[in-house]
Amino acid sequence: MSQKEQKEFEEKVVELNLLNARMQELEQQMQIIEKQISELHTVYTALKELEETNTETEMLSSIGQNVFVKAKLQDNQEVCMDVGAKVFVKKTVQEAKDIITKKTDEFIDIRENATKQLQFIAEQMLTLENNLRKEQARLSRE
After folding, report:
1. What is the CATH number of the domain that holds 16?
2. What is the DSSP letter of 83?
3. Which residues contact 53 (CB under 8 A, 6 or more apart)?
4. Of 37, 23, 50, 59, which is closest to residue 104 (Cα–Cα)?
């Protein structure tokens, strides 16, 4: 194997390793996206249930980290939503559901884009692996 061929072979191996790292990164992002979509579905379902719950109904209300307090529902038509930087705004339950639906759709679009990227990278890796195998086979015959 000439030095040029050796260098080209090593560059292809490096490229394959980079593609593999990118694929792993995208797979981790996909897990985060799936978790976000799942959480949004849970919130949407809770909002639907809230609408159907009678006021003055006793319920457990989360105060974080799996800690709950007993509370009575005073209003089943409005919620407060965190819009960032610990700023809360009142929204009707329907407005909140619409916002959650929009966020869910955005995450679904992101997931579809990431899936396409994963497929593209997988195809590139397969092509590169095949080229490397052919190159190895050719070199072993020489």
Report:
1. 1.10.287.370
2. E
3. 59, 73, 76
4. 37
